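TODO from last week: model DNTP triphosphohydrolase.
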Amino acid sequence: MTESSPQPTERARRAVAEPRASVEVTGEHSQFRLDLERIRFSPYFSRLSAVTQVIAQPGAGPLIHNRLTHSIKVTAVARAIAVGFADAASPAHALAVEHGCDAVVVQAAASAHDLGHPPFGHLGERVLDRLARETLGLADGFEGNAQTYRILATLDVTENAPHGLNLTAAVRAATAKYPWTRFVDARSLPAGPLPRGMRRVGGGVEIAKFSAYDLDAVDLEAARRGLPPLTQSLECSVMDIADDIAYSIHDVDDFYRAGLLSQGAVAREFRGFIEDAAGLRALDEAALGARSAPPGAALEALRRKLHRSDAWVASDDAFADAVDVVADDLVDGLLASPFDGSIAAERALSSFTNRWIAHLQTSVVPAPEGVVRSGLVTLDRGAWHEVEILKFVHRHFILDRADIAMYQRGLSRVLTRAVKGLTAWITDDVDRHRVPHRLRELVDLATEGYARLRATRPDGLPVPEASEVHRLGIGRGVIDYVASLSDDQALAVSEAIDGRPDRLWDIGQNL
Protein backbone atom coordinates (compact mmCIF):
# COMPACT_ATOMS: atom_id res chain seq x y z
CA MET A 1 0.00 0.00 0.00
CA THR A 2 1.35 3.43 -0.99
CA GLU A 3 2.33 5.69 1.91
CA SER A 4 0.11 8.75 2.25
CA SER A 5 1.35 12.31 2.45
CA PRO A 6 1.26 14.10 5.81
CA GLN A 7 -2.14 15.53 6.75
CA PRO A 8 -2.37 18.82 4.79
CA THR A 9 -3.63 22.12 6.13
CA GLU A 10 -7.07 23.18 4.94
CA ARG A 11 -5.55 25.64 2.43
CA ALA A 12 -3.25 22.94 1.04
CA ARG A 13 -5.95 20.27 0.88
CA ARG A 14 -6.59 18.71 -2.54
CA ALA A 15 -9.86 17.26 -3.79
CA VAL A 16 -8.16 13.86 -4.13
CA ALA A 17 -5.47 12.81 -1.64
CA GLU A 18 -2.19 12.09 -3.42
CA PRO A 19 0.43 9.52 -2.42
CA ARG A 20 3.76 10.71 -1.05
CA ALA A 21 5.58 9.10 -3.97
CA SER A 22 3.86 11.44 -6.42
CA VAL A 23 4.23 14.56 -4.29
CA GLU A 24 7.79 14.56 -3.03
CA VAL A 25 7.31 17.84 -1.23
CA THR A 26 6.04 18.70 2.21
CA GLY A 27 4.73 21.87 3.73
CA GLU A 28 1.98 24.18 2.59
CA HIS A 29 4.22 26.52 0.55
CA SER A 30 5.76 23.62 -1.38
CA GLN A 31 2.33 22.26 -2.22
CA PHE A 32 1.45 25.65 -3.73
CA ARG A 33 4.63 25.60 -5.79
CA LEU A 34 3.63 22.19 -7.14
CA ASP A 35 0.33 23.74 -8.22
CA LEU A 36 2.18 26.55 -10.00
CA GLU A 37 4.25 24.00 -11.91
CA ARG A 38 1.17 21.98 -12.89
CA ILE A 39 -0.46 25.09 -14.32
CA ARG A 40 2.61 26.25 -16.22
CA PHE A 41 3.25 22.80 -17.70
CA SER A 42 -0.36 22.48 -18.81
CA PRO A 43 -1.14 22.41 -22.55
CA TYR A 44 -3.96 24.83 -21.79
CA PHE A 45 -1.32 27.30 -20.58
CA SER A 46 0.83 26.81 -23.69
CA ARG A 47 -2.24 27.33 -25.88
CA LEU A 48 -2.55 30.92 -24.64
CA SER A 49 0.36 31.92 -26.88
CA ALA A 50 -1.98 31.44 -29.85
CA VAL A 51 -5.05 33.19 -28.43
CA THR A 52 -5.84 36.82 -29.17
CA GLN A 53 -5.62 39.43 -26.43
CA VAL A 54 -7.24 42.28 -28.43
CA ILE A 55 -5.47 42.50 -31.79
CA ALA A 56 -4.58 39.26 -33.59
CA GLN A 57 -0.82 38.86 -34.03
CA PRO A 58 -0.87 38.03 -37.78
CA GLY A 59 -2.34 41.47 -38.46
CA ALA A 60 -0.29 43.46 -35.99
CA GLY A 61 3.08 41.74 -35.57
CA PRO A 62 4.75 39.44 -33.04
CA LEU A 63 5.29 42.10 -30.36
CA ILE A 64 1.56 42.46 -29.72
CA HIS A 65 0.38 40.78 -26.51
CA ASN A 66 -1.36 37.46 -26.60
CA ARG A 67 -3.04 35.73 -23.66
CA LEU A 68 0.22 34.02 -22.64
CA THR A 69 2.37 37.16 -22.52
CA HIS A 70 -0.48 38.92 -20.72
CA SER A 71 -0.65 36.11 -18.14
CA ILE A 72 3.12 36.19 -17.59
CA LYS A 73 3.00 39.94 -16.93
CA VAL A 74 -0.01 39.65 -14.63
CA THR A 75 1.94 37.02 -12.69
CA ALA A 76 4.93 39.36 -12.31
CA VAL A 77 2.78 42.25 -11.09
CA ALA A 78 0.78 40.01 -8.75
CA ARG A 79 3.92 38.55 -7.21
CA ALA A 80 5.39 42.03 -6.63
CA ILE A 81 2.23 43.13 -4.85
CA ALA A 82 2.09 40.00 -2.66
CA VAL A 83 5.78 40.22 -1.75
CA GLY A 84 5.28 43.88 -0.86
CA PHE A 85 2.65 42.91 1.70
CA ALA A 86 5.37 41.11 3.70
CA ASP A 87 6.90 44.50 4.53
CA ALA A 88 5.59 45.67 7.91
CA ALA A 89 5.40 49.19 6.48
CA SER A 90 2.91 48.12 3.79
CA PRO A 91 -0.63 49.42 4.39
CA ALA A 92 -1.90 45.89 3.64
CA HIS A 93 0.58 44.03 5.88
CA ALA A 94 -1.87 43.44 8.73
CA LEU A 95 -4.49 42.22 6.27
CA ALA A 96 -2.00 39.76 4.76
CA VAL A 97 -1.10 38.43 8.21
CA GLU A 98 -4.78 37.99 9.08
CA HIS A 99 -5.94 36.34 5.85
CA GLY A 100 -2.78 34.78 4.47
CA CYS A 101 -1.20 35.94 1.23
CA ASP A 102 1.27 33.41 -0.12
CA ALA A 103 3.11 34.85 -3.12
CA VAL A 104 3.19 31.45 -4.83
CA VAL A 105 -0.60 31.05 -4.54
CA VAL A 106 -0.94 34.49 -6.11
CA GLN A 107 1.46 33.52 -8.92
CA ALA A 108 -0.43 30.29 -9.58
CA ALA A 109 -3.77 32.08 -9.75
CA ALA A 110 -2.36 34.76 -12.03
CA SER A 111 -0.84 32.14 -14.34
CA ALA A 112 -4.18 30.31 -14.49
CA HIS A 113 -6.59 33.24 -14.65
CA ASP A 114 -6.99 33.33 -18.45
CA LEU A 115 -6.88 29.59 -19.23
CA GLY A 116 -10.57 29.62 -20.09
CA HIS A 117 -10.45 32.39 -22.65
CA PRO A 118 -11.73 31.06 -25.98
CA PRO A 119 -10.43 31.91 -29.45
CA PHE A 120 -10.62 35.62 -30.43
CA GLY A 121 -10.58 37.11 -26.95
CA HIS A 122 -13.61 38.78 -25.40
CA LEU A 123 -15.49 38.62 -28.70
CA GLY A 124 -15.25 34.81 -28.60
CA GLU A 125 -16.53 34.85 -25.03
CA ARG A 126 -19.65 36.80 -26.01
CA VAL A 127 -20.34 34.67 -29.08
CA LEU A 128 -19.94 31.36 -27.24
CA ASP A 129 -22.18 32.58 -24.43
CA ARG A 130 -24.93 33.44 -26.92
CA LEU A 131 -24.58 30.12 -28.75
CA ALA A 132 -24.44 28.11 -25.52
CA ARG A 133 -27.64 29.63 -24.21
CA GLU A 134 -29.71 30.22 -27.35
CA THR A 135 -28.60 27.34 -29.60
CA LEU A 136 -27.48 24.62 -27.18
CA GLY A 137 -29.86 25.33 -24.30
CA LEU A 138 -27.18 25.61 -21.59
CA ALA A 139 -28.72 27.80 -18.90
CA ASP A 140 -25.37 28.99 -17.57
CA GLY A 141 -24.00 29.66 -21.05
CA PHE A 142 -20.30 30.40 -21.39
CA GLU A 143 -18.07 32.58 -19.24
CA GLY A 144 -14.29 32.77 -19.44
CA ASN A 145 -13.74 32.71 -15.68
CA ALA A 146 -16.03 29.71 -15.24
CA GLN A 147 -14.24 27.98 -18.13
CA THR A 148 -10.93 28.58 -16.36
CA TYR A 149 -12.25 26.89 -13.24
CA ARG A 150 -13.65 24.04 -15.33
CA ILE A 151 -10.23 23.44 -16.87
CA LEU A 152 -8.54 23.36 -13.47
CA ALA A 153 -11.18 21.21 -11.77
CA THR A 154 -12.36 18.91 -14.59
CA LEU A 155 -10.87 19.17 -18.08
CA ASP A 156 -7.11 19.19 -17.57
CA VAL A 157 -5.31 16.10 -16.29
CA THR A 158 -2.75 15.04 -13.72
CA GLU A 159 -1.51 11.58 -12.87
CA ASN A 160 -3.17 11.16 -9.48
CA ALA A 161 -6.75 12.35 -9.98
CA PRO A 162 -9.49 11.19 -12.34
CA HIS A 163 -10.25 14.73 -13.54
CA GLY A 164 -8.58 18.13 -13.34
CA LEU A 165 -5.22 19.23 -11.98
CA ASN A 166 -6.20 18.43 -8.38
CA LEU A 167 -4.94 21.80 -7.12
CA THR A 168 -4.94 22.91 -3.50
CA ALA A 169 -7.98 24.69 -2.09
CA ALA A 170 -6.08 27.98 -1.74
CA VAL A 171 -5.08 28.10 -5.41
CA ARG A 172 -8.53 27.07 -6.64
CA ALA A 173 -10.13 29.75 -4.47
CA ALA A 174 -7.62 32.34 -5.67
CA THR A 175 -8.67 31.83 -9.30
CA ALA A 176 -12.34 32.59 -8.52
CA LYS A 177 -12.69 36.31 -9.24
CA TYR A 178 -16.46 36.01 -9.18
CA PRO A 179 -17.01 33.29 -6.56
CA TRP A 180 -20.54 32.24 -7.45
CA THR A 181 -22.44 30.50 -10.26
CA ARG A 182 -24.97 31.99 -12.67
CA PHE A 183 -27.76 30.77 -10.40
CA VAL A 184 -27.37 33.09 -7.41
CA ASP A 185 -30.61 33.45 -5.45
CA ALA A 186 -31.45 37.17 -5.68
CA ARG A 187 -33.00 36.98 -2.20
CA SER A 188 -29.56 36.19 -0.73
CA LEU A 189 -27.98 39.36 -2.14
CA PRO A 190 -27.49 42.63 -0.26
CA ALA A 191 -30.12 45.31 -0.74
CA GLY A 192 -27.62 47.96 -1.87
CA PRO A 193 -24.81 47.79 -4.43
CA LEU A 194 -23.96 44.37 -5.87
CA PRO A 195 -20.54 42.79 -6.35
CA ARG A 196 -18.82 43.40 -9.69
CA GLY A 197 -20.21 40.99 -12.25
CA MET A 198 -23.81 41.44 -11.13
CA ARG A 199 -26.38 44.13 -11.88
CA ARG A 200 -30.03 44.78 -11.20
CA VAL A 201 -32.28 44.56 -14.25
CA GLY A 202 -35.93 45.38 -13.71
CA GLY A 203 -37.00 43.46 -10.65
CA GLY A 204 -34.27 40.83 -10.92
CA VAL A 205 -30.51 40.42 -10.97
CA GLU A 206 -28.38 39.64 -14.03
CA ILE A 207 -25.26 37.56 -13.37
CA ALA A 208 -22.86 38.60 -16.12
CA LYS A 209 -19.66 37.26 -14.54
CA PHE A 210 -19.22 34.08 -12.48
CA SER A 211 -16.48 31.59 -11.71
CA ALA A 212 -18.13 28.16 -11.94
CA TYR A 213 -20.72 26.42 -14.08
CA ASP A 214 -23.31 24.28 -12.34
CA LEU A 215 -21.14 21.22 -13.14
CA ASP A 216 -18.19 22.55 -11.12
CA ALA A 217 -20.04 24.45 -8.38
CA VAL A 218 -19.56 21.77 -5.71
CA ASP A 219 -15.79 21.81 -6.27
CA LEU A 220 -15.68 25.61 -5.96
CA GLU A 221 -17.72 25.49 -2.77
CA ALA A 222 -15.30 22.95 -1.29
CA ALA A 223 -12.28 25.06 -2.27
CA ARG A 224 -13.80 28.16 -0.65
CA ARG A 225 -14.84 26.48 2.60
CA GLY A 226 -14.50 29.02 5.41
CA LEU A 227 -14.53 32.11 3.14
CA PRO A 228 -17.45 34.58 3.32
CA PRO A 229 -20.02 34.25 0.51
CA LEU A 230 -19.57 36.47 -2.57
CA THR A 231 -16.13 37.60 -1.34
CA GLN A 232 -12.78 36.95 -3.00
CA SER A 233 -9.93 35.49 -1.02
CA LEU A 234 -7.13 37.99 -0.41
CA GLU A 235 -4.88 36.16 -2.88
CA CYS A 236 -7.62 36.34 -5.48
CA SER A 237 -8.01 40.09 -4.88
CA VAL A 238 -4.29 40.59 -5.49
CA MET A 239 -4.48 38.61 -8.73
CA ASP A 240 -7.55 40.58 -9.82
CA ILE A 241 -5.88 43.95 -9.27
CA ALA A 242 -2.72 42.77 -11.05
CA ASP A 243 -4.86 41.77 -14.02
CA ASP A 244 -6.42 45.24 -14.13
CA ILE A 245 -3.03 46.94 -13.90
CA ALA A 246 -1.38 44.87 -16.63
CA TYR A 247 -4.41 45.08 -18.91
CA SER A 248 -4.68 48.87 -18.63
CA ILE A 249 -1.01 49.41 -19.45
CA HIS A 250 -0.12 46.84 -22.07
CA ASP A 251 -3.18 47.53 -24.22
CA VAL A 252 -1.88 51.09 -24.58
CA ASP A 253 1.51 49.53 -25.41
CA ASP A 254 -0.06 47.36 -28.14
CA PHE A 255 -2.09 50.10 -29.80
CA TYR A 256 0.81 52.54 -29.73
CA ARG A 257 3.10 49.99 -31.38
CA ALA A 258 0.45 49.17 -33.98
CA GLY A 259 -0.04 52.85 -34.84
CA LEU A 260 -3.73 52.71 -33.95
CA LEU A 261 -3.77 55.44 -31.30
CA SER A 262 -4.10 58.81 -33.02
CA GLN A 263 -2.53 61.48 -30.86
CA GLY A 264 -4.78 64.10 -32.44
CA ALA A 265 -8.05 62.30 -31.66
CA VAL A 266 -7.00 61.37 -28.10
CA ALA A 267 -5.72 64.89 -27.38
CA ARG A 268 -8.94 66.43 -28.69
CA GLU A 269 -11.05 64.34 -26.31
CA PHE A 270 -8.87 65.01 -23.26
CA ARG A 271 -8.46 68.71 -24.03
CA GLY A 272 -12.20 69.07 -24.50
CA PHE A 273 -12.87 67.63 -21.06
CA ILE A 274 -10.15 69.64 -19.32
CA GLU A 275 -11.23 72.95 -20.89
CA ASP A 276 -15.01 72.57 -20.56
CA ALA A 277 -15.77 70.15 -17.73
CA ALA A 278 -18.53 72.39 -16.37
CA GLY A 279 -20.24 72.74 -19.75
CA LEU A 280 -20.13 68.99 -20.35
CA ARG A 281 -21.80 68.32 -16.99
CA ALA A 282 -24.75 70.41 -18.12
CA LEU A 283 -25.46 68.12 -21.11
CA ASP A 284 -28.14 65.45 -20.85
CA GLU A 285 -27.46 61.78 -21.65
CA ALA A 286 -28.84 62.05 -25.20
CA ALA A 287 -26.54 64.97 -26.01
CA LEU A 288 -23.52 63.13 -24.58
CA GLY A 289 -24.15 60.11 -26.79
CA ALA A 290 -25.00 62.03 -29.95
CA ARG A 291 -22.70 61.90 -32.94
CA SER A 292 -22.37 65.67 -32.70
CA ALA A 293 -21.30 65.53 -29.04
CA PRO A 294 -18.46 67.95 -28.25
CA PRO A 295 -14.92 66.82 -27.43
CA GLY A 296 -14.74 65.50 -23.88
CA ALA A 297 -18.27 64.06 -23.94
CA ALA A 298 -17.04 60.44 -23.77
CA LEU A 299 -14.92 61.20 -20.70
CA GLU A 300 -17.90 62.95 -19.10
CA ALA A 301 -20.02 59.86 -19.80
CA LEU A 302 -17.33 57.76 -18.08
CA ARG A 303 -17.34 60.11 -15.05
CA ARG A 304 -21.09 59.64 -14.66
CA LYS A 305 -20.86 55.87 -15.10
CA LEU A 306 -18.27 55.61 -12.33
CA HIS A 307 -20.55 57.49 -9.95
CA ARG A 308 -23.43 55.15 -10.81
CA SER A 309 -21.51 51.90 -10.47
CA ASP A 310 -18.80 52.70 -7.91
CA ALA A 311 -20.01 55.52 -5.69
CA TRP A 312 -17.85 54.11 -2.87
CA VAL A 313 -14.69 55.40 -4.57
CA ALA A 314 -15.76 57.73 -7.42
CA SER A 315 -14.65 61.32 -6.90
CA ASP A 316 -14.89 64.27 -9.28
CA ASP A 317 -11.63 65.72 -8.00
CA ALA A 318 -9.79 62.40 -8.35
CA PHE A 319 -11.28 61.91 -11.83
CA ALA A 320 -10.13 65.37 -12.96
CA ASP A 321 -6.66 64.75 -11.53
CA ALA A 322 -6.45 61.39 -13.30
CA VAL A 323 -7.45 62.98 -16.62
CA ASP A 324 -4.68 65.56 -16.15
CA VAL A 325 -2.07 62.91 -15.27
CA VAL A 326 -2.91 60.66 -18.24
CA ALA A 327 -3.10 63.66 -20.57
CA ASP A 328 0.39 64.78 -19.52
CA ASP A 329 2.08 61.38 -19.58
CA LEU A 330 0.24 59.58 -22.40
CA VAL A 331 -1.34 62.16 -24.69
CA ASP A 332 1.28 64.92 -24.57
CA GLY A 333 4.10 62.53 -23.71
CA LEU A 334 4.19 59.06 -25.27
CA LEU A 335 1.76 59.66 -28.14
CA ALA A 336 3.40 62.92 -29.18
CA SER A 337 6.01 60.88 -31.10
CA PRO A 338 4.64 58.07 -33.32
CA PHE A 339 6.20 54.67 -32.71
CA ASP A 340 8.76 54.01 -35.47
CA GLY A 341 10.55 50.93 -34.10
CA SER A 342 13.68 52.87 -33.23
CA ILE A 343 15.68 52.38 -30.04
CA ALA A 344 14.53 55.81 -28.88
CA ALA A 345 10.86 54.83 -29.40
CA GLU A 346 11.40 51.54 -27.57
CA ARG A 347 13.07 53.38 -24.70
CA ALA A 348 10.21 55.88 -24.43
CA LEU A 349 7.63 53.09 -24.41
CA SER A 350 9.61 51.04 -21.87
CA SER A 351 9.94 54.07 -19.61
CA PHE A 352 6.20 54.77 -19.81
CA THR A 353 5.26 51.14 -19.08
CA ASN A 354 7.73 50.61 -16.22
CA ARG A 355 6.84 53.90 -14.58
CA TRP A 356 3.12 53.14 -14.56
CA ILE A 357 3.50 49.53 -13.43
CA ALA A 358 5.75 50.57 -10.54
CA HIS A 359 3.33 53.34 -9.53
CA LEU A 360 0.20 51.18 -9.66
CA GLN A 361 1.55 48.08 -7.95
CA THR A 362 2.65 50.22 -4.98
CA SER A 363 -0.81 51.87 -4.82
CA VAL A 364 -2.62 48.79 -3.48
CA VAL A 365 -4.35 49.42 -0.14
CA PRO A 366 -6.93 47.65 2.05
CA ALA A 367 -10.46 48.22 0.78
CA PRO A 368 -12.93 50.05 3.03
CA GLU A 369 -14.94 47.64 5.16
CA GLY A 370 -18.35 46.65 3.86
CA VAL A 371 -17.73 47.59 0.21
CA VAL A 372 -19.15 44.73 -1.85
CA ARG A 373 -17.88 46.25 -5.11
CA SER A 374 -14.28 45.60 -4.09
CA GLY A 375 -12.17 42.73 -2.88
CA LEU A 376 -10.20 42.85 0.35
CA VAL A 377 -7.67 45.17 -1.31
CA THR A 378 -8.05 47.83 -3.95
CA LEU A 379 -6.10 50.65 -5.57
CA ASP A 380 -6.03 53.94 -3.72
CA ARG A 381 -8.50 56.53 -4.98
CA GLY A 382 -6.07 58.31 -7.30
CA ALA A 383 -4.64 55.15 -8.90
CA TRP A 384 -8.13 53.61 -9.22
CA HIS A 385 -9.27 56.57 -11.35
CA GLU A 386 -6.06 56.51 -13.39
CA VAL A 387 -6.62 52.86 -14.32
CA GLU A 388 -10.20 53.66 -15.36
CA ILE A 389 -8.94 56.47 -17.60
CA LEU A 390 -6.26 54.27 -19.17
CA LYS A 391 -8.82 51.55 -19.91
CA PHE A 392 -11.10 54.19 -21.39
CA VAL A 393 -8.42 55.12 -23.95
CA HIS A 394 -8.28 51.69 -25.59
CA ARG A 395 -12.00 51.06 -25.22
CA HIS A 396 -13.09 54.34 -26.79
CA PHE A 397 -10.41 54.84 -29.43
CA ILE A 398 -9.80 51.23 -30.49
CA LEU A 399 -12.65 48.81 -29.78
CA ASP A 400 -15.30 51.03 -31.37
CA ARG A 401 -13.40 51.42 -34.67
CA ALA A 402 -15.41 50.31 -37.70
CA ASP A 403 -12.56 48.22 -39.16
CA ILE A 404 -12.13 46.26 -35.93
CA ALA A 405 -15.90 45.83 -35.60
CA MET A 406 -16.06 44.47 -39.17
CA TYR A 407 -13.25 42.00 -38.46
CA GLN A 408 -14.95 40.87 -35.25
CA ARG A 409 -18.25 40.24 -37.04
CA GLY A 410 -16.38 37.87 -39.34
CA LEU A 411 -14.82 36.05 -36.40
CA SER A 412 -18.26 35.72 -34.85
CA ARG A 413 -19.39 33.75 -37.90
CA VAL A 414 -16.30 31.53 -37.64
CA LEU A 415 -17.25 30.43 -34.12
CA THR A 416 -20.92 30.05 -35.02
CA ARG A 417 -20.02 27.71 -37.91
CA ALA A 418 -17.74 25.67 -35.68
CA VAL A 419 -20.26 25.23 -32.85
CA LYS A 420 -23.24 24.47 -35.09
CA GLY A 421 -21.22 22.22 -37.40
CA LEU A 422 -19.72 20.14 -34.60
CA THR A 423 -23.10 19.84 -32.85
CA ALA A 424 -24.73 18.60 -36.06
CA TRP A 425 -21.90 16.14 -36.61
CA ILE A 426 -21.95 14.56 -33.16
CA THR A 427 -25.74 14.16 -33.33
CA ASP A 428 -25.62 12.60 -36.81
CA ASP A 429 -26.55 8.94 -36.32
CA VAL A 430 -24.79 7.96 -39.54
CA ASP A 431 -21.49 9.81 -39.16
CA ARG A 432 -20.97 10.59 -35.48
CA HIS A 433 -18.53 7.71 -35.03
CA ARG A 434 -15.98 9.77 -37.01
CA VAL A 435 -16.04 12.91 -34.85
CA PRO A 436 -12.68 13.82 -33.23
CA HIS A 437 -11.88 11.54 -30.32
CA ARG A 438 -11.25 14.51 -28.03
CA LEU A 439 -14.74 15.87 -28.71
CA ARG A 440 -16.34 12.52 -27.86
CA GLU A 441 -14.41 12.43 -24.58
CA LEU A 442 -15.50 15.95 -23.64
CA VAL A 443 -19.14 15.13 -24.39
CA ASP A 444 -18.90 11.96 -22.26
CA LEU A 445 -17.27 13.92 -19.42
CA ALA A 446 -19.97 16.60 -19.47
CA THR A 447 -22.73 13.99 -19.69
CA GLU A 448 -21.31 12.24 -16.62
CA GLY A 449 -21.28 15.59 -14.86
CA TYR A 450 -24.94 16.30 -15.59
CA ALA A 451 -25.89 12.77 -14.52
CA ARG A 452 -24.04 13.31 -11.24
CA LEU A 453 -25.78 16.66 -10.80
CA ARG A 454 -29.12 14.94 -11.25
CA ALA A 455 -28.21 12.20 -8.76
CA THR A 456 -26.81 14.46 -6.01
CA ARG A 457 -29.16 17.47 -6.46
CA PRO A 458 -26.95 20.11 -4.77
CA ASP A 459 -28.82 23.00 -3.15
CA GLY A 460 -29.24 26.12 -5.28
CA LEU A 461 -28.43 24.49 -8.62
CA PRO A 462 -30.87 23.53 -11.39
CA VAL A 463 -31.32 19.78 -11.69
CA PRO A 464 -31.66 18.46 -15.26
CA GLU A 465 -34.44 16.09 -16.26
CA ALA A 466 -33.29 12.57 -17.13
CA SER A 467 -34.23 13.16 -20.77
CA GLU A 468 -32.04 16.28 -20.87
CA VAL A 469 -28.79 14.85 -19.50
CA HIS A 470 -27.32 13.68 -22.81
CA ARG A 471 -28.43 16.77 -24.76
CA LEU A 472 -26.82 19.03 -22.17
CA GLY A 473 -23.69 16.88 -22.22
CA ILE A 474 -23.40 17.35 -25.98
CA GLY A 475 -23.85 21.10 -25.66
CA ARG A 476 -21.31 21.55 -22.90
CA GLY A 477 -18.87 19.16 -24.57
CA VAL A 478 -18.99 21.09 -27.84
CA ILE A 479 -18.46 24.38 -26.00
CA ASP A 480 -15.54 22.89 -24.04
CA TYR A 481 -14.03 21.70 -27.31
CA VAL A 482 -14.35 24.94 -29.28
CA ALA A 483 -13.22 27.04 -26.31
CA SER A 484 -10.01 25.00 -26.10
CA LEU A 485 -8.94 25.80 -29.68
CA SER A 486 -6.38 28.43 -30.62
CA ASP A 487 -7.37 31.24 -32.97
CA ASP A 488 -5.85 29.45 -35.97
CA GLN A 489 -7.37 26.10 -35.03
CA ALA A 490 -10.81 27.68 -34.75
CA LEU A 491 -10.43 29.19 -38.23
CA ALA A 492 -9.24 25.87 -39.67
CA VAL A 493 -12.02 23.83 -38.02
CA SER A 494 -14.67 26.31 -39.16
CA GLU A 495 -13.46 26.28 -42.76
CA ALA A 496 -13.12 22.49 -42.87
CA ILE A 497 -16.65 22.02 -41.52
CA ASP A 498 -17.84 24.48 -44.16
CA GLY A 499 -16.30 22.29 -46.87
CA ARG A 500 -13.31 24.51 -47.63
CA PRO A 501 -10.11 22.47 -47.92
CA ASP A 502 -7.66 25.42 -47.91
CA ARG A 503 -6.51 24.86 -44.33
CA LEU A 504 -7.46 21.21 -43.85
CA TRP A 505 -3.95 20.10 -42.92
CA ASP A 506 -3.48 23.01 -40.50
CA ILE A 507 -5.69 21.08 -38.08
CA GLY A 508 -3.46 18.01 -38.05
CA GLN A 509 -3.72 15.75 -35.01
CA ASN A 510 -4.84 18.61 -32.73
CA LEU A 511 -8.49 17.71 -33.15
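Done. Residues 402-426 form the longest helix (25 residues).
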